[in-house]
Design brief:
Length: about 350
């Protein structure tokens, strides 16, 4: 599909929706996104909510055809520029910064964030060049005063980014070829489809709005609005009896929940930055991307309602990979060589590390 100012952004994949509703949504809502824990309590039982619906294809490789559609992937070194929208504590920023800085760090203990990124790097472009090893933290900008309010649409997200790259003081640099732009919203900000359909999404900016084509992602802090949806398993739905939340590795449920979504979106931005490279399915309007296939899977055996085998620290916190100084829980991604979801804490490879 050609992309330009006259076309609406594609929607996030919505396999849970009835087909008739999906057809309406295809022409009315934008962008590809991380889909949350299913939470339609009106029509689903607790068993349905645990076992049904989410796009978890692990162990079903015969149904998955991840294909390359000839578009670019990010083979040049990636610089991640962050726009902090709303109110952020310094400690929250440190957690997110360290996750991004850990993607290329060789110094973290195994299983590591860089080991997770090695699966993302298996994706190549037309020339056979792999996604880059190097992901570095770039410039940061604060929007403490909610320049576009506390309720954003998907299009107004692009206007927020435009303000950041065209600001008269300390604008974010404009790097269409090597820059990724992360818009991170604080817990008191609502973004269109947040909690109901997505916890984050990625796309690219329209030149007609921003002036440039820049790959970007939005991820929200769900702490106030829907932690049981977007920060699971560190918060759990109260309508499922007996389900207990796990202890988060950095002591901040909202931010620890964001980390996996940020990882999801960076992996998909690298492998499908213009939504014309790596995805499964026939429809570029609703692509199933490399991280979509492994949502909710954090370890060996994951799939359905089971997260897979994770690691437990001496402090009781749950994680599955190490950063430079911190621990994180990050979902696995689809491995195009093995044709199933993999991660650095997989039991079959962890024993050899």
């Amino acid at each position: 599909m050609p992309h330009g100012s006259s076309f609406p952004e594609p929607p996030s994949p919505a396999l849970l929706l009835p087909l008739c509703l999906l057809l309406v949504i295809l022409f009315s809502t934008p962008s590809s996104g991380w889909r949350p824990w299913p939470n339609n309590t009106a029509t689903r039982t607790s068993t349905d909510l645990l076992l049904g619906g989410s796009k978890k294809y692990e162990g079903s490789s015969e149904f998955v055809h991840m294909k390359y559609h000839m578009g670019p992937v990010l083979t040049a070194d990636i610089t991640v520029h962050i726009l902090w929208y709303g109110t952020w504590a310094p400690r929250q920023k440190h957690i997110i910064r360290e996750f991004i800085s850990s993607i290329s760090s060789p110094s973290a203990a195994s299983p590591s964030v860089s080991g997770w990124w090695s699966t993302v790097r298996l994706y190549t472009d037309q020339t056979g060049a792999n996604i880059t090893h190097t992901v570095r933290l770039g410039s940061e900008k604060n929007d403490r005063f909610y320049s576009h309010g506390k309720s954003l649409t998907r299009l107004s997200v692009q206007s927020v980014l435009k303000s950041a790259v065209t600001a008269t003081t300390k604008p974010l640099p404009i790097s269409p070829k090597t820059g990724l732009y992360l818009l991170l919203t604080s817990p008191d900000v609502y973004v269109q489809d947040f909690c109901g359909q997505v916890c984050g999404f990625h796309y690219f900016t329209f030149p007609s709005i921003v002036g440039y084509t820049l790959p970007y992602a939005w991820v929200g802090n769900s702490h106030l609005l829907c932690p049981a949806v977007c920060a699971y398993p560190f918060a759990v739905p109260d309508y499922i009896p007996g389900l207990k939340p796990l202890k988060s590795p950095n002591g901040d449920v909202g931010v620890d929940g964001m980390i996996s979504v940020i990882g999801h979106e960076i992996a998909e931005l690298a492998s499908n930055p213009l939504v014309n490279a790596w995805y499964a399915g026939q429809d570029p309007i609703a692509p199933v991307e490399v991280a979509d296939l492994c949502e909710g899977i954090y370890g060996t055996g994951g799939g359905g309602s089971y997260t897979g085998q994770m690691l437990n620290g001496v402090d009781g916190a749950t994680y599955n990979m190490n950063g430079i100084r911190r621990r994180f829980l990050v979902q696995w991604v689809w491995n195009p060589v093995l044709n199933y979801c993999t991660g650095p804490n997989a039991l079959d490879q962890h024993h050899h590390q």
